[in-house]
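Quick illustration for those who missed Monday's session on complexes.
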Amino acid sequence: QLEETVYLEKLSVVGKMAAAIAHEIRNPLTTVRGLIQHMEADTEDKKLKQFSPLLLEELDRTNKIITDYLKLVKPSEMTYEKVDLNRVVNDTVELIKPIGSYHNVKIELREEDTFTVEADEQQLKQCIINLVNNGIEAIEQGKEEGVQQQEGLVSIIVDRGNEKSFAAISIVDNGRGMTEEEIEKIGLPFYTTKTKGTGLGTMITNRLVRNMGGKVQYESEFGRGTIARILLPAVKKQ
Ligand code: ADP
Ligand code: MG
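Prediction with magnesium ion bound:
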């Protein structure tokens, strides 16, 4: 299948790059970080005092990018278990509400159905957080670009979705949305429209959800918003 081939190709490119650079870069980064902290603690130098937080922040950002790459090549051990999807989604929403209020975005949860799914709880949480973060960032982009003026709202909906025997977690935002061209590029390695983006969040999410036997779908309209939907096979209730 063409789609599958392209997907695997995308992975191997990133995989090779990541494997080659990650270890080589991480160690010196850790050393530099330690040295900056050490110098900052001892010094009277105003410039060093002033700029070291910025240096540390940039180093941490670099480290995060590398960590994201590593997640792609060497995903942490998966433990698939039967989990109560509604509980996992509720826990995740509680986790992200503060991020929402910090960005003036309301986070709302609607549960129309209850499901048990076979999944890795931590990774499922990570996927939902990635998509909600994208929703929040799309709302900020929409305001900056003046294409969307409404109050920021991200709704998380748990229902049967549009596919039989699947559980759907839809993350609906009223942010800037995407044009058709943009939707096509989503999930490509390094594709980002953000100055501080990595262009890896959706790719990692796609991969984790696929490993759980599910898939991620997008619907979007420029100037209106986006629906990112995680579909997972529902475990039949006894
Ligand atoms: P990053 O968030 O670091 O840019 P992602 O892989 O998470 O990387 O997303 C890639 C790109 O896809 C984003 O930069 C943005 O252009 C687009 N995108 C993802 N989610 C949304 C969304 N909810 N609304 C609009 N655009 C989105
Ligand atoms: Mg992202």
